[in-house]
Amino acid sequence: MNTFKLITAELQRLEQAKTYKYETALESAQGGVVKVKGKDVVMLASNNYLGLSNHPAVKKAAIEGIKKYGYGVASVRFICGTQDIHYELEKKISKFVGAEDTILFSSCFAANEGYFASFINEGFGSEQHKDVLYSDRLNHASIIDGQRLCRPEFVDKKIYNHSDVAHLEQQLAEDVNNEYRFRIIATDGVFSMEGDLAPLNNIVELGKKYNAIVFMDDSHGIGVCGKTGRGTPEAKGVINKIDVITGTLGKALGGAAGGYISSSKEFISYLRQKSRPYTFSNSLPPAIVFGAMAAMDLLMNDKSIVSRLHENTAYFRKEITSLGFTILEGDHPIVPIMLGEASVAQEMSAALLKAGVYIKGLWFPVVPKGEARLRTQISAALSKKDIDRALEAFEKVGKKMKVINQ
Ligand SMILES: Cc1ncc(COP(=O)(O)O)c(C=O)c1O
Predict the structure, then answer these.
(1) Does the annotation count 251 as an active-site position?
(2) Active-site residue among 140, 220, 236, 310?
(3) Residue 13's pLDDT band (boundaries 50, 70, 90)?
């Protein structure tokens, strides 16, 4: 079999297994309502939590960024790709999340890839060392891939059951007499398939008790969780208590691209030296830097944006439940509507698109077998009318498919 045939066969296998990812082109900007195939549909699938992706102030700032600092920097940070605005954005993020310092990456995927190996693979002058990682079973792919870059001879990797503090403690306790150099607990702040928040307060306590570094990816928490949108630590009352926070600029904070790591001054200085996706990849373009700063200014100065997101979320959660749908409980704008079989989720997302609602279904192997779902993501960009229109479509399609009672 030649390469072409092998690849084609694999693509067919993906299609048969219903794991082939199809793309649907939007014919408009991201927003509460978008255009698909010439039709306006309510968007319930984006990470545009604060509705800033197409906000006039963010767009104006991005254009301003291009005017003042150009389109591209054409360099990595340490050669000639650092503009004063990169430091400005890093400072802004540090202040917002309550950390000493911040380092920017081209994405949060790159930030997570650039974190673990940067110190786990380093001997710091000694020949032999071993670190240990404790990772939540449902952590994002970028955390998993970041950990894969750590050389096995330097690290023991343990996976604890999802948000299971007792299991995590059991693993930490088992290792208490092992001579590990660094112990690192890694968790998402918000888990993207479930919309649930990590038990950060317990994790922080365990980190203290067992002398472990607490690493948290707050991509779905920043701008979303907590009264002022400072993220999962604000919601859980542990601001300033997480050792390492990573996050994205590609969701609530304007939705363009870019990621960051916030931590102590020393550790961020170290990452500027050793983190490969930072050292060997272009710095963020000025339009994105300016856009992200404008998004953060809006979030900090206009409290109504994040409260609108919270109100929309509470409204949708209440109304969809009273229609008879089963959702995963919580208060995050990720609202999984549980349907069971993959075929039901597939049929329902297609029917909803026809009825004017854009939503994606998730099924095995992305989520466990028999737990197929539609993943709703609520945004501050949605008006009450948009949400009501979506709820009407849910009711109509749900009844027709007998997912809810007539
Ligand atoms: C938890 C989490 N971490 C990291 C990422 C990657 O973010 P970015 O798009 O900035 O690479 C995502 C995006 O889906 C995510 O959900």
Answers:
(1) yes
(2) 220
(3) very high
Q: Identify whether the C-beta of residue 41 lies closer than 8 Å to the C-beta of residue 34.
A: yes
CATH fold for the domain made of 56-301? Aspartate Aminotransferase; domain 2 (3.40.640)
User: How many A from CA of 141 to the centre of ligand 1?
Assistant: 8
pTM of the predicted model, to two decimals? Answer: 0.97
Contact 109, 281 (CB under 8 A): no
The set of residues, in sequence order, having a beta carbon less than 8 Å from that of 398 and lying 6+ positions away, is: 323, 324, 325, 348, 404
* Span 58-75, pLDDT tens digits: 999 999 999 999 999 999
- The answer to whether residue 310 is catalytic is no
What is the fold, at CATH topology level, of the domain defined by 17-46+303-400?
Answer: Aspartate Aminotransferase, domain 1 (3.90.1150)
- Which residue's CA is minimally distant from atom 12 of ligand 1? 219
The residue behind tokens 């439940």 is 321
Q: Looking at 107, 192, 263, 349, which residue is catalytic?
A: 192
Ligand 1 pocket, Cβ-based, cut-off 6 angstroms: 107-109, 140, 142, 188, 192, 217, 219-220, 248, 250, 259
Provide mean pLDDT across the span 207-212.
Answer: 98
